[in-house]
């Protein structure tokens, strides 16, 4: 059954015609590509580990929008809301009228009453910027087994390890799991290669072969809907973490990780939390703990 | 700017909770006004075997008010029907992102839709259960088996009322049965 579901799911993700899309913010530097560190760009370096039987899992990053981007977003949202508001009011009034009619005739009303329209509740899809992106598993700087190395050119900024995706060689790139229940963030300054250490992901229906994911896996069959859920974590840079020769002379710095509290991402296929990261991220019941401070990790909203 | 159009209709049709689940529910109703279905543990081996499909959440020592808060928050992670999960996307981070909905049409023709309809029930059930499990189990909740009929009454299609029902069930004395481990 689960195999059938997987096949069905693969079929669900048919090619998506793209009319227009924002620029790709994450540019993978592949094996053989020239490596030159620009002063106006940031770079993310990480390694992946795939023991036998572990699928390819791509990290999904969110770059926190800049103030200027948020101003443009807010202006676009206000303009779209002003245009949509009369229609939203009509829709709500129509539903209220249907409800009243149903109740007057002794029937139960099965529909949904939309909330009173407001800018806060307005569903606005903004597509001028795409700040949530994944790193293509086909773009390794060093392709190996079980380890591969990725070097990605990105806009300088503040990043969140937002989620995980199945390798895009098999299915369309999608937010298969958001790390909505706790994760890490890090700054990526311009002119610097920010070394994340290792990123590790796996299916978590069964106990994972990846040591850091063992306690955060084995959730059994009811955890599987269309796709088997994904788990992930990071292993920060250690003394034995090697830097590729092509980066000799570059400013390579370990990521200054910080813990990030819960957030909501309604477009994610499922939710998880980043497995605990010693010295950085821990959990205690509903609490997401910033280990460095011992306090609750800040939430996004 | 033009929108991406995506043919993931079956996924949209199969998964999802109503939009109200994303909004804050009203405060907890008086638990005395809530009538629960009969949660007496079944000794039927078939019910116990199917416990991974039909279960309720329980946490020893949790109060109704705490459980209501936990369920209210965890319901926010229920999948949104028709939400487009394709990357890349925009998220404002400091507020909830907008949701692009995909059209509910079939990619597979009548036969495909027939097959999809057959598996839609279990897929939808698991799609709702999986995020609730992850959210609640990390807070110390465990699962106990129920018959399908009782489960259905308790979950009530993930209605706003079901938050209070499940919170009340979760805060009762622990049942005399084994938790679900699958």
Structure report:
The complex is a heterodimer of chains A (301) and B (182). The N terminus of chain A is likely disordered. With 301 residues, chain A is α+β, with helices and mostly antiparallel strands. The two termini of chain A are 39 Å apart. Chain A is globular, with a radius of gyration of 22 Å. In chain A, the strands form three sheets. In chain A, strands 3, 4, 6, 7, 8, 12 and 13 form a seven-stranded mixed β-sheet that branches. Chain B has 182 residues and is mostly helical. Chain B has one domain. Chain B contains six helices and two strands; from the N terminus they run ααβααβαα. In chain B, helix 3 runs antiparallel to helix 4 and helix 3 packs across helix 6. The longest helix of chain B has 29 residues. The termini of chain B are far apart. The N terminus of chain B is likely disordered. The chains are: A alpha+beta (301), B mainly alpha (182). Chains A and B meet through helix 1, strand 4, strand 6 and strand 13 of A and helix 1 and helix 4 of B.
Structure described in brief:
Chain A has helices spanning 2-12, 67-104; strands spanning 27-28, 42-49, 57-63, 132-134, 147-154, 157-166, 177-178, 183-188, 193-203, 230-235, 252-254, 258-260, 270-271, 281-284, 287-290, 295-296. Chain A is α+β, with helices and mostly antiparallel strands. Residues 1-14 of chain B have low confidence and may be disordered.
Quickly count the domains of chain B: 1
Strand count, sense and closure of the main sheet of chain B?
A: 2 strands, antiparallel
Secondary structure: helix percent of chain A: 10-25%
Taken in chain order, the helices and strands of chain A follow as HEEEHEEEEEEEEEEEEE
Biggest sheet character of chain A: 7 strands, mixed
Q: Helical stretch count of chain B?
A: 6
**Structural shape of chain B:** globular
Helical residue percent band of chain B: 25-40%
Separation of the first and last Cα atoms of chain A: 39 Å
The interface involving the most residues is between: A-B, 76 and 64 residues
Number of helices, where a helix is a run of at least 4 consecutive DSSP H or I residues of chain A: 2
**Regions with little confidence, pLDDT below 50 for 5+ residues of chain A:** 1-7, 9-19
């Amino acid at each position: 059954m689960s195999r059938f579901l997987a096949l069905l799911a693969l079929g669900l993700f048919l090619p998506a015609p793209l009319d227009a899309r924002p620029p790709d913010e994450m540019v993978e530097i592949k094996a053989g590509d020239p490596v030159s560190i620009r002063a106006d760009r940031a770079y993310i370096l990480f390694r992946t580990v795939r023991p036998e039987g572990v699928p390819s899992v791509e990290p999904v990053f969110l770059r926190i929008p800049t103030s200027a981007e948020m101003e443009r977003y807010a202006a676009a949202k206000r303009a779209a809301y002003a245009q949509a508001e009369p229609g939203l009011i009509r829709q709500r009034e129509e539903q209220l009228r249907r409800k009243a009619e149903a109740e007057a005739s002794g029937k139960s009303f099965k529909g949904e009453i939309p909330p009173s329209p407001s800018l806060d509740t307005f569903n606005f899809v903004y597509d001028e910027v795409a700040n949530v992106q994944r790193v293509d598993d086909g773009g390794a700087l060093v392709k190996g087994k079980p380890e591969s190395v990725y070097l990605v050119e990105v806009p300088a900024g503040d990043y969140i390890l937002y989620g995980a995706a199945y390798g895009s060689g098999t299915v369309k790139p999608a937010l298969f799991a958001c790390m909505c229940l706790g994760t890490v963030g890090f700054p990526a300054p311009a002119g610097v290669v920010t070394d994340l250490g290792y990123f590790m992901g796996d299916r978590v229906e069964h106990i994972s072969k990846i040591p850091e994911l063992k306690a955060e896996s084995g959730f059994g069959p009811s955890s599987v809907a269309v796709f088997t859920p994904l788990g992930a974590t990071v292993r920060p840079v250690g003394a034995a973490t090697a830097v590729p020769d092509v980066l000799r002379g570059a400013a390579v710095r370990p990521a200054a990780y910080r813990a990030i509290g819960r957030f909501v991402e309604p477009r994610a296929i499922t939710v998880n939390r980043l497995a605990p990261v010693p010295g950085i991220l821990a959990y205690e019941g509903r609490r997401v703990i910033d280990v460095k401070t011992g306090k609750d990790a800040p939430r996004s909203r | 700017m033009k929108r991406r159009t995506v043919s993931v209709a079956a996924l949209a049709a199969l998964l999802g909770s109503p939009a109200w689940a994303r909004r804050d529910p009203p405060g907890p109703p008086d638990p005395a006004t809530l009538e629960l279905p009969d949660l007496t543990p079944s000794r039927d081996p078939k019910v116990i075997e199917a416990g991974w499909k039909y279960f309720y959440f329980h946490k020893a020592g949790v109060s109704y008010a705490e459980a209501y808060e936990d369920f209210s928050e965890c319901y926010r992670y229920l999948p949104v029907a028709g939400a487009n999960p394709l990357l890349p996307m925009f998220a404002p981070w400091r507020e909830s992102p907008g949701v692009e909905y995909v059209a509910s049409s079939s990619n597979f023709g009548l036969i495909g839709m027939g097959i999809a309809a057959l598996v839609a029930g279990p897929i939808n059930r698991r799609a709702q259960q999986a995020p609730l499990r992850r959210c609640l189990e990390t807070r110390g909740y465990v699962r106990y088996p129920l018959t399908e009929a009782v489960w259905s009454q308790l979950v009530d299609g993930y209605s706003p009322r079901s938050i209070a029902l499940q919170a009340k069930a979760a805060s009762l004395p622990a049942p005399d049965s084994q938790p679900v481990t699958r």
